[in-house]
């Protein structure tokens, strides 16, 4: 009962402290949503500091601020393209598009092999003899699609 009385007497400050606790939890449990709930808690505390509100209304303000801020955060960040100086980092086959190389093994029944650097690649394309120069035009997983150069 003493805790409830303390919260009722110090309503605005309890919201601000709860908001700070949520912000601290965001440091330990990153995910983004605790940040916005912490900010909503602090804003609720500031609102109730200047305009006293009943407890149910305070919870409503906190809930609405939390939902609106989380929704806005998700909308703004989820559709934003990640900027990087190496856009093809984990798309190894994309680096090879347009490159011309020589077949190590002939393409028979649609499949053959070639070597680039220290890696042997499986290739698909029209039947071609070993030693034929080919151009890489696409990829299907780890199989490079080629055409005669």
Structure report:
The protein is α+β, with helices and mostly antiparallel strands. The protein folds into two domains: 82 residues, no CATH class; 61 residues, OB fold (Dihydrolipoamide Acetyltransferase, E2P) (Beta Barrel), CATH 2.40.50.140. It has four helices and five strands; from the N terminus they run H-H-H-H-E-E-E-E-E. It has a five-stranded mixed barrel. A hairpin with a 2-residue loop joins strand 2 and strand 3. Helix 2 packs antiparallel against helix 3 and helix 3 packs antiparallel against helix 4. It is rod-shaped, with a radius of gyration of 30 Å. The model has no long low-confidence stretch (mean pLDDT 88).
Measured between the Cα atoms of the first and last residue, the distance is 83 Å
Bin the helical content.
40-55%
Mean of the pLDDT scores?
88
Note the beta-strand portion: 15-25%
Tell me which oligomeric state these chains represent: single chain
Quick one: biggest sheet?
5 strands, mixed, barrel
Q: List SSEs in N-to-C order.
A: HHHHEEEEE
Q: Characterize the overall form.
A: rod-shaped
Any low-confidence stretches, pLDDT <50, length ≥5?
none
List keywords for this structure.
rod-shaped, 149 residues, alpha+beta, single chain, OB fold (Dihydrolipoamide Acetyltransferase, E2P), 4 helices
Short description:
Residues 95-148 form the NfeD-like C-terminal domain. With 149 residues, the protein is α+β, with helices and mostly antiparallel strands.
């Amino acid at each position: 009962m003493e805790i409830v009385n303390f919260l009722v007497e110090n309503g605005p400050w309890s919201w601000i402290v709860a908001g700070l606790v949520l912000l601290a939890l965001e440091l330990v449990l990153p995910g983004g949503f605790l940040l916005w709930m912490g900010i909503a808690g602090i804003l609720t505390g500031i609102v109730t500091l200047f305009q006293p509100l009943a407890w149910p209304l305070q919870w409503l303000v906190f809930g609405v601020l939390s939902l609106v801020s989380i929704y806005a955060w998700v909308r703004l960040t989820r559709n934003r393209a990640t900027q990087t100086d190496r856009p093809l980092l984990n798309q190894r086959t994309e680096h090879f598009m347009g490159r011309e190389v020589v077949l190590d093994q002939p393409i028979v029944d649609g499949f053959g092999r070639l070597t680039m650097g220290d890696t042997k690649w499986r290739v698909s394309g029209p039947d071609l003899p070993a030693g034929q120069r080919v151009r890489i035009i696409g990829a299907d997983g780890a199989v490079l699609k080629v055409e005669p150069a």
